[in-house]
Design brief:
heterodimer, A: 902 residues, alpha+beta, 6-stranded mixed beta barrel, elongated, B: 225 residues, alpha/beta, Rossmann fold, 5-stranded antiparallel sheet, 32% helix
Chain lengths: 902, 225
């Protein structure tokens, strides 16, 4: 039996090869799933950790435990440290990530104490932090040796807060030793965290507001002598989160949850991140499936089509076998063996790639085998007599046309689309809230393409008949035969048509989708940054408390010369200072707004340095800059502010600012009146919407006027780089000169990061994969169909030739058929793809760009990809035609007719 | 016989194929004359060379040696396009394999032949006429697949004669038919010869049909006996 199957496969080697290609591609799509899943999971984790650091400015993988114990149980620091380590060992036994560092702190509540300068009855606690010595700098130490039994160190913030000085003695009158002597500590120094590249400082000194730090010996001695009954302790274990990956994330998450449940004193910042990870994982899973599905359907259609072609060619053999008593089951078995043999290549490849993908390969195989056997099932029930009496050209209406399934499906899709448009706002809100996506939203676009293709095919059928009937009196023999051939075989061809139209349409749709998402993301990033590079150096602030309790402050402006030199030397294109304040109050016309933004600029250099996409304002934004330049006390205001406060050009408004001193952040430092010189919708650096969708109001004033009024506050430096330059050189040069930045916002890096976001990356990868697969199967499908169809018509061409039809006329006839099929499918596919783009992309793009933005989502069509589709198909058509010419040329009329006799 | 009365004339007609030890002659040195308006039968066993001869006479195959004159035209000097025109306008074909065009109905099959021959008169009228002659007027809109073997062969004959060809070539036209259908086809041929003056050249291996022909050529191993 096996040799029979092999022989059968050898006879139709090309078709079987195509089938094998289809199966391999299907398996590839299935294999893509775990591979992409892993890749995206790792990226989500990586980005999640990174974002966490940026947002919270703390280490992203910390296991914490805060507890207290009785000194009876743990009489020494050593015993307690050991206890803490035991906890840590237990944690890392499960969560197998390398410890980066750990911090152990124990505190004793000292209750109220009296000091010389810091006042009386202040609350203090006494703490010991393991290994603190090597991670602090003593900013100020006592001169000479302090001869105190108990020396302690305090942080700068404690010093400021209590007004303590070095050498001061702190007396805890309620804590006394056996002899009744109260506990006294002497401040031996002021300490500050070392500026170093270690992760020691999870808890920073500033987290310990009322704390006096002592050494381990001192702490032990105090424990021994002063009858403290309880020690509070905190431990933080920092883990190397880079060891977290798609394989262990879910496991570790469950362990951490178990720890939290069993131990109320345990906490970790990982849970929240892993929760986020799970959400995003589910979301990307959905996107993966939803985007792979159309590709899978297309491949299954392809497999079905090729298998059907094979079975049709072997129809006679099947019928003969059936007539000789072979059972349907036995025939199915024959084809099953064939299908399994073809799938084996894919399975072998699967094993080579890795065991993880094997289940996916197996699923793909089972599905592929089912689709290969479907046509066999249909044909295996016919005996030779039934097969011969079947009329292939009766022009039976396919079932979906008979029951109007095409219109029905299109209606369903349209209805769903309409509903989604109605819920557009809720949709972007739910995306922003991180809720998982509605898969129907994505699948609906595929449904639309499929149903639309069916409708188009129905229409093409009508169109062909219409054209034929209109000219039926006048058609030359070639056209006459070509039209009848197309009309009568249209139901057989419809699979090819569906296939071509869906492939081309989805190729175009996906290209447009990717273009739109990528371009819009880029446009928004370019808008958000507003120039090539924005940076800020460290500004030193001097503060002092006035007698009236208010705070005096002044900033030391870092040198700006460095940038001016760079500009002068032509190393950068231009540079400007931009002062920003996100917490100003604005009042005008009896209305007021809190928490608005101020931007202070030097109009000329700002105009040279900043960039803004055209068309966002009613006139070029330079007009507003010019207006501001001529009005020193003027302000450009955002449109929403103008509307909210009913302001127009020439009106006046008052804005006030608050103290930059943290302790006095509610204190106003003055107000200024400015005249509205221009109103803008968009401006570099101005984003109308906050992350939560709330409106941002902004005024833009002259820098000189603002600094005159409020004195100098920190500004950022906006840099426009020379064409093609990267910002890295600037960083290097700054480093050489010892300049360090507290913030660095580079357009280039932002753009790079955006393409690195896992959603966009997965989408792009899948678009590319499905595009490639679509093209491969489209071309193969087209070629197979035509070559098969032409080979099967060899007798027919013989008849035409015998009847005196010239070879050129025969070419012309087949060429007409090809052109109509090719042009028809390309036009119909193109139109469907464009229609689907226009209808679905604005909605689907919300999933990728849910935030409200000054730049609303615009469609981007026609990439090079579209030309590629057309070129690939054209090549396929040319190949077909060349193959066809060869077949026709080599055909001997007498032989072709002889074939008919056989 | 005057030249005007001769439809086809051959002299020294041979068709050979190269084989290992020289040549294999499918048809050897055939010189025959076929008169206009007659029913001619080429008889012979399978493999005797009758189809090869018929193919050469009908320009479907090229002779290796010898000359054919078709309605006064020397085929050996005629370009391919000229032969195609002959086949379209002056010849009609009925094949053993029936060879109807499966995507066309009976009516359309005949119409196609008329279009090929650039038939100037009313197609519909002529199609009805030939369909009536072959007795298929009522079934002319059926697809060929819906007709029986005999009916299909009659459609093929209708298609072959619709454009009034001077010569009708029929290769084993009754080969695939039962005796009754075979005889009906022969009756039709007789009628065509007598009523339309068509010259018919047919091959057969059925000895029962010999007496229905005006002239019978017996072929054996490629040679006319």
């Amino acid at each position: 039996m096996l040799s029979f199957v092999f022989q059968k496969m050898k006879n139709k080697k090309w078709l079987n090869l195509c089938l094998a290609v289809g199966i391999c591609l299907l398996m590839a799509v299935f294999i893509c799933h775990p591979v992409l899943e892993e890749q995206s999971d790792n990226r989500i984790l990586e980005n999640g950790f990174k974002e966490y650091v940026e947002k919270n400015e703390e280490f992203p993988a910390v296991l914490l435990r805060s507890d207290s114990c009785l000194t009876e149980d743990y009489p020494t620091t050593e015993s307690l440290l050991k206890r803490m380590e035991q906890y840590e060992d237990k944690w890392t036994e499960y969560v197998k990530l390398d410890p980066v560092s750990s911090q152990h702190i124990m505190t004793l509540s000292g209750s109220s104490a009296n000091t010389n300068f810091g006042g009386n009855n202040q609350l203090y606690q006494i703490a010991f932090m393991e290994n603190m010595d090597s991670h602090v700098d003593v900013v100020k130490a006592a001169e000479g040796n302090i001869e105190a039994e108990y020396a302690c160190y305090i942080s700068e913030s404690v010093m400021d807060f209590y007004g303590l000085v070095v050498g001061e003695v702190i007396t805890f009158s309620h804590v006394s030793d056996d002899q009744g002597n109260p506990l006294t500590l002497t401040i031996a120094g002021i300490i500050r965290e070392k500026e170093e590249e270690t992760n020691f400082w999870y808890y920073e000194l500033s987290d310990y507001e009322k704390t006096l730090f002592v050494s381990q010996q001192t702490f032990d001695r105090m424990l021994e002598s002063y009858g403290f009954s309880q020690i509070s302790w905190q431990e933080a274990l920092l883990l190397d989160y880079r060891g977290m990956n798609s394989d262990n994330a879910f496991l570790y998450k469950s362990y951490l949850e178990a720890f939290s449940q069993k131990d109320v004193f345990f906490s970790t910042n990982l849970t929240e991140q892993l929760e986020d990870f799970t959400n995003q994982h589910d979301k990307t899973q959905m996107i993966l499936w939803v985007m792979e599905l159309p590709c899978m359907v297309l491949l299954l259609l392809f497999i079905y089509m090729v298998s059907k072609q094979i079975v049709e060619l072997e129809e006679g053999e099947i019928a003969v076998l059936r007539s000789r008593g072979t059972t349907r089951f036995q025939i199915m078995n024959l084809y099953l063996i064939q299908a399994v043999l073809l799938s084996l290549i894919g399975i072998l490849a699967g094993f080579l790639i890795g065991l993880k993908v094997v289940p996916y390969v197996m699923i793909a195989m089972v599905i592929a085998v089912i689709f290969m056997l479907l046509p066999v099932w249909k044909k295996s029930n016919l005996t030779i007599v039934e097969q011969k009496s079947q009329n292939k050209y009766e022009g039976k209406t396919p079932f979906w046309q008979k029951f109007f399934l095409d219109f029905l499906l299109l209606g369903v899709s349209g209805y769903l689309l309409f509903n989604y448009y109605k819920q557009q706002d809720e949709l972007s809100a739910s995306v922003l809230a991180g809720e998982s996506l509605d898969p129907v939203l994505f699948l609906n676009s595929s449904l639309f393409l499929f149903a639309g293709s069916l409708v188009v095919i129905r229409l093409v059928g009508y169109l062909l008949k219409g054209i034929y009937y209109l000219g039926r009196k006048h058609w030359k023999p070639g056209m006459y035969a070509a039209f009848l051939q197309m009309i009568r075989t249209f139901h057989k061809q419809s699979l090819l048509w569906i296939f071509l139209i869906v492939t081309i349409a989805s190729g175009i749709f996906q290209t447009n989708m990717a273009q739109t998402v990528n371009q819009n993301t880029q446009e928004r990033i370019i808008y958000d940054v507003g120039t090539d590079l924005i940076l800020m150096e460290r500004w030193k602030m001097q503060t002092s408390k006035n007698d009236d309790g208010s705070w005096a402050w002044s900033y030391e402006e870092p040198s700006y010369e460095f940038y001016e030199e760079l500009e002068k030397d032509g190393k950068i294109d231009s540079v400007t200072r931009v002062l920003e304040d996100d917490n100003i109050d604005i009042s005008a016309n009896g209305k007021s707004i809190k928490g608005a933004s101020l931007m202070a600029i030097s109009t000329k250099t700002f105009g040279e340095t900043a960039q803004l996409q055209d068309g966002l304002n009613s006139e070029h934004w330079y007009y507003s800059l010019n207006a501001l330049a001529t009005e020193p006390e003027g302000a450009i205001i955002s449109r929403n502010l103008a509307e909210k406060m009913e302001l127009s050009v020439g009106d006046k408004l008052i804005y006030s600012r608050y103290s930059p001193v943290l302790a006095a952040k509610d204190q106003s430092i003055g107000a200024d009146t400015v005249k509205v010189s221009a109103i803008v919708d968009a401006f570099p650096g101005y984003n109308r919407y906050q992350e939560d969708g709330e409106e941002n109001y902004m005024i833009i004033c002259n820098l000189a006027a603002v600094t005159d009024k409020f004195s100098m506050t920190p500004y950022s430096v906006w840099v426009k780089l020379n064409e093609g330059d990267s910002a890295d050189f600037l960083r290097e040069m700054a480093e050489e000169q010892g300049i360090s930045f507290t913030s660095w916002n580079s357009l280039e890096e932002n753009l790079k990061e955006s393409t690195g976001s896992s959603m966009i990356q997965i989408t792009n990868i899948l678009f590319q994969i499905s595009f490639l697969i679509s093209m491969i199967i489209c071309v193969t499908g087209y070629l197979i169909y035509w070559i098969m169809s032409i080979q099967s018509r060899e007798l027919l061409f013989g008849i035409y030739r015998a009847m005196g039809m010239g070879i050129k006329k025969v070419y012309g006839m087949v060429f007409t058929e090809q052109i109509i099929c090719f042009a028809g499918a390309v036009t119909a596919g193109g139109a469907m793809g464009m229609l689907a783009s226009v209808l679905f992309i604005p909605l689907l793009a919300l999933v990728y760009l849910p935030e409200k933005h000054n730049i609303s989502i615009t469609m981007h069509f026609l990439g090079m990809d579209l030309l590629q589709i057309a070129a690939v198909l054209l090549v396929a058509a040319v190949i077909c035609f060349v193959v066809l010419l060869r077949i026709l040329k080599n055909m001997k009329i007498a032989q072709a007719l002889k074939m008919g006799e056989d | 016989m005057s030249e005007k009365e001769i439809a086809i004339q051959t002299s020294g007609l041979s068709r050979w194929f190269p084989v290992e030890n020289g040549k294999f002659y499918a048809v050897k040195d055939v010189s025959i004359e076929i008169s206009k308006g007659t029913l001619n039968i080429i008889k012979g066993r399978s493999g005797s060379g009758k189809t090869t001869l018929l193919n050469m006479l009908s320009t479907l195959d090229e002779p290796s040696e010898g000359k054919i004159t078709f309605l006064g035209n020397d085929l050996s000097t005629m370009p391919v396009s000229g032969k195609e025109t002959l086949r379209r306008k002056d010849m009609g074909f009925v094949f053993q394999s029936i060879a109807l065009i499966p995507v066309m109905s009976a009516y359309e099959n005949v119409d196609f032949a008329l279009r090929l021959a650039d038939y100037k008169e009313d197609h519909h009228h002529r199609i009805r006429e030939v369909m009536e002659r072959v007795g298929l007027l009522k079934r002319m809109d059926h697809m060929t697949g819906q007709l029986s073997g005999g009916e299909q062969q009659r459609v093929a004959i209708a298609r072959a004669v619709a454009h009034h060809p001077a010569v009708l070539f029929a290769d084993e036209p009754t080969g695939a038919l039962d005796t009754a259908s075979g005889l009906a086809v022969m009756g039709l041929f007789r009628e065509l010869v007598e009523k339309e003056g068509t010259t018919i050249i047919m091959t057969t291996h059925d000895p029962n049909l010999m007496e229905l022909g005006d002239k019978v050529f017996e072929i054996q191993d490629g040679q006319i006996l």
